[in-house]
Amino acid sequence: MIRRMNRAGLLGLLLALIAGSAWAEVTLTFYAHPGARVRDGYLLFPHAFVQATGTLDDTGETVDWAAGFTARNPGPQLLFTRGVGVVELPNPRYVGEGKPYLRLAVSDEAYRAVRARADWWNSPEGSVYDLRRRNCITFIADLARLAGLQTGAEPSMKPGTFLEATAALNPLAAWREGAVQEAGAQAPPAATERAAGARPGGR
């Protein structure tokens, strides 16, 4: 009887490990925030950002991260000149107000590449902000290509319009409640742009 119990215990452990491995994944979701509201004395503008949630397969580490690129010092001067940009982490309330357009599951390696690329956007080389040509949309487009997605036309200053066009190019990753596309499960995208100078693109 003990032998049977041991076998049952081993089988249960094996099934748990298999299930845990199957569930351990990171999901990227790309959002647009509508803006057009005042909060804490600041006018919120339309904005694009990405959120990563889930669990790393190799370490079991929980992932809960979000990021968007914006001007460090917003103001009318950005209509005429470039400024310094910064990668900011939107709070849960802000994320909850966003509209999701794309969602896909990525490997640990792809997630870490996306995080490293976001860090580059905070570096002296990567933090150049241009309202019309190097903004939140440019940032999101760069990360989306790194994750294996095709992206809509740039430059753009309309996050929702850009992400809607990007979703149309990636129908398997287009947002559907409860559906998550596995990275690489669609037709091969255009070559991922990984050059230091990201393509022009909106906030």
Describe it.
With 203 residues, the chain is of the alpha+beta class. The protein has 5 helices and 9 strands, in the order αββββββαβαβααβ. The chain has helices at residues 2-23, 92-97, 108-120, 136-146, 159-169, and strands at 26-33, 37-39, 42-44, 47-55, 62-71, 83-88, 99-106, 128-129, 181-182. Residues 1-5, 8-22 and 186-203 have low confidence and may be disordered.
List keywords for this structure.
about 200 residues, alpha+beta, seven-stranded mixed sheet, two-stranded antiparallel sheet, globular, disordered N terminus
Low-confidence stretches: 1-5, 8-22, 186-203
Distance between the termini: 67 Å
Largest β sheet strand count, sense and barrel closure: 7 strands, mixed
Alpha carbon gyration radius: 20 Å
Number of distinct helices: 5
What structural category do the secondary elements indicate? alpha+beta
The averaged pLDDT comes out at 81
Listing every helix as H and every strand as E from the N terminus to the C terminus, the arrangement reads HEEEEEEHEHEHHE
State the share of residues found in helices, binned by percent.
25-40%
What is the overall shape?
A: globular
Strand arrangement, largest sheet?
8-6-5-4-1-7-9
The percentage of residues in β strands lies in 25-35%
Kindly state the number of beta strands: 9
